[in-house]
Amino acid sequence: MEIMTLLGQYIRTKWLARRFSTREQLEKWQDRQVQTLLARVLPASPFYLKRMGTLRLDEWRKLAPIDKKLMMEHFDELNTRRIAKEEAFRIALAAENTRDFTPQIKGITVGLSSGTSGNRGLFLVGPQEQAKWAGTILAKALPGQLWSEQRIAFFLRANSNLYEAVDRRRIQFAFFDLQHALAEHLERLNRYQPTVLVAPASMLRMLAKAQRQGSLRVSPVKVISVAEVLDPLDEAYIEASFDQRVHQIYQCTEGLLAVSCAHGTLHVNEDILVMVKEYLDERKERFFPILTDFSRETQPIIRYRLNDILTERRTPCPCGSIFMALESVEGRSDDLFWFWHETENRPVSIFPDFIRRAVIAASAEIEEYTVRQLSMEQVEVALLVNGAQAADAKRQVRQSLAAVIRSHGGKVPAIDFVPYQLHSGTKKLRRVERVFAFDEQQGRN
């Protein structure tokens, strides 16, 4: 572990947050960081060298964006360590099967995304990048100072050398495998007594319920949601159970994108990456992010379009940071709902957040829910309702969903209700999900 790199990054992260007083200063500094990165990366990455063509380094914003499919197709010539995709997949899949996540390739940590967007992605992280990541995450997410004693409980589908990098002398790190039984987790947590609890929203919900029932008895000073969209319904339940604000870390295969501040606002990590907004609506609120991460060299992320739907925050955050603030991470573009227009022969789309809020606002008795669009003509809803109000809740949800679909000009589909299945925690929870493929260009499913 590169301890001096970690400490240096920790100090820089703390200092940089206060260095810039205007967006113009920040953006000029970011531009210099990207050009410096390109000067180092291009000779070692045939993919990006060819893609730059005759563009000057200061013209990097003119590069056409890439996506996961293109990155994986050109994985061998994109990464700067000449690591073959086939070998990386072999190492990553073996780690998944054996649950031993320590093996590396040429000293490089290999990881595998969960594949919720349909195709699994690889990520490569070198020792220096690993140390910088640890320094950044400790500076942004750790309560107190670096020298304070902390016990971090980290729930994820897979462990990684990347996460183990935060395990220092006074900072203990314990990985909790989501594949293990909840009862085992509760027993271990009661012994460990974490000061920081990090888990997907669905697991935090399960732990919050156990805390209310008395089978879990912990008092974390910070609770952090990762890996899944944090639904407002779950957020309120978790906060009430632990008497703590739920913070968020927004991270994916493509990098450490955002961390919430003391006020709970997600701020983009503009001290390590550039996020360009590709707007999706006329009001310019929702957008796809196009990422350029100037902290990563082993697997460069340059002008990479992520298919997450983000909502920009319009009002300044009380913390005073000039880093871009997000209102929410709505989910994947794959989860846009599509319906036929009520009077015209064309489809209309509805963002996941409208569906989410339609259900939550329908009844105060709803504890948990999922909404799955099976086709243009059928939506399936599952509700977990408090008390004997299930029939009323279903009626109110049907009316609320129909109203939001009509407000977008859509033809209301059949809305069917099915029994709610408790989430197991072994796969990502998607409370709002479209399960059929839709071709927007041709306007048919």
Automatic annotation (TrEMBL):
SUPFAM superfamilies: Acetyl-CoA synthetase-like. It comes from the Bacteria. PANTHER family: CAPSULAR POLYSACCHARIDE BIOSYNTHESIS PROTEIN. NCBIfam families: aden_form_hyp (TIGR02304). This is Adenylate cyclase.
